[in-house]
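Researcher: Structure prediction, please.
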Amino acid sequence: MRGALLILALAAVTLVGWAQTAEDLAAQADAVFQELWATEYTPEAHDALQARLEEAISLYEQALALDEGNVHVLVMLARCYYTLADMFLAEDGDKKAAYIQGQEYGERALRADPAFVQIEEEQGFIEAVRACENLEALYWTYANWARKDEYDKIGAILRGDAPKLEALIMRAAELDEMYLCAGPLRALGAFWGGLPRLPFGTYRLNLERADNYLAQAVEKCPEYLENLRFRIEFYLDHLGADGEAEAQELLQRILEAPLGDYPLYNSRTKLWAQARLED
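Model: Predicted structure follows.
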């Protein structure tokens, strides 16, 4: 009997030792995500890289189950779901679902701040965003929401999404326009260059603003090759033949550039540039 009790006691001690906190799980997830972020993308490695990202997501979600208000975990889940949709998923329905999930986590990160909730209740979402100090929550909420809305641009405008999106990314730019290598500038250029052509209204294609923001992104952080890609896609392509010479120059710069500090996304952008030149 005493022997059985000793075994049970040892088992209990072992289980306690194995128990992981939300911080432990988040740290493991951070390590997996950073490993992925620092890895070159190739078509051959696609499935293995996606599996690593999904491993990070699983760890973050386990951490969130233990600490549902953990802002870092919520932000990273928003970022992970964006990356999953943007880099790895192929079907539109799957991509949109991932962006929706990422947006939900981003909004939860914003509302984890009681001050945000109070301002939103009293003055509305946009005013809460304008007072928000959480750069990453703003950025990744915007990123997922904007990409989700690409599947229904007119509907998004009719729902009133555009002013909320503009507020999110403008506030991110105010806090740090160089986050993720000019990410807010890149996003603002894509925002104005990705709106539909409409005969009137504030939120319609605006090439002057797209040009301004994307030129700044390319100038300030040319080593992040998606800045060059976005200038092609969201500005120069609208110009037709008038934008062709600069587009060709940027495509060559993408192909000749090193992977640098952003191997995952830069390698994917290089594959895009090569495919574009071969078309």
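Model: The CA atoms of residues 113 and 132 lie 9 Å apart.
Researcher: Thanks, that helps.
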